[in-house]
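Technical note accompanying the year-one report. For the benefit of new consortium partners, we illustrate the data format agreed upon in the data management plan: each record pairs a sequence with a structure-token string. No post-processing was applied to the example shown here.
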Amino acid sequence: MSSPGASTGVRAKDDRVSTRSLTSRLLSRPEIGSLIGAVAVFVLFCVVAPTFRSAPSLATVAYSASTIGIMAVAVALLMIGGEFDLSAGVVVTTSALAASTFAFQLGLNLWVGILVSLLLALAVGAFNGWLLMRTGLPSFLITLGTFFMLQGLNLGVTKLLTGGVSSDSVADMDGFSGAQTVFASTVRVGGIGIKITVFWWILFVAIATWTLLRTRVGNWIFAVGGDDAAARAVGVPVRRTKIGLFMTVGFCGWFVGMHQLFSFDSIQSGGGVGQEFIYIIAAVVGGCLLTGGYGSAIGSAIGALIFGMTSLGIVYAGWDANWFKLFLGVMLLLATIVNLVVKNQAAKR
């Protein structure tokens, strides 16, 4: 007996096998919208600010982007996992203060203070993750509480120990030059000085991208961000994954804190407030959805690059820097809308 397809002379199409067009694959990438935006911003400032096009200016832009981008990578991973961390900005200052104050007050090598501050930053991240999983409260509320606690500790302890609002200078302490080389040195490339944070930033983005796209941990991150109950049902270690993501934010906060400390040899205790929103905006501009389960590390890097180009491009163009905050708000809204539209259009193809 012949099949219906054979009797009509038409081979039945197997819907199980299909190929996606190049356009569809591009639109499915979270960072495509931010990439288009980055090109537009770059072209704009190349036209209106000739100084922007010089190699030293571009190196400065890259440095500015790296100090945001290192934290934005960790925040993006956390957002893909479905959570927020409003203490991300303050933990940078806490880490720097802990390293300098511990070593200075006890007269120890600065590397001891650096290690202690790393453990503290990881502990803050672990606490946020543990409390989230223990109580089921929104991460927004938990990390807002951590934000205020750390801010109070930064100001109170610094005032108690130094009598002022900044830490003591550590420039003459043992270990300073070595730590400065690791966290805050300048590398000469083709006669242009590039801050080492740019190279660290690239490395962190590469590691995060590999983790998301090529490892089981990356699958876990997307799974817990999409639906943690469903992820738990299929064996994903939700608790361990989310605590690990918060600890990653703590690690990157420690790293940026070390950069700030060894760039200026002291730190202001009131710093870091408001920076958490910059990191979140960079991640959102880079394609992360506020609902979790979607985004990329490369997108966060592009979002940070847009920040770097805009903050310095406005200066090079001679515009009023007060307009920068307006740009941030507009960019956040546009990025959120564009990311949602791109995701929906890609899903239809």
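Partners are asked to follow this layout when depositing records. Confidence is low (pLDDT under 50) at residues 1-17.
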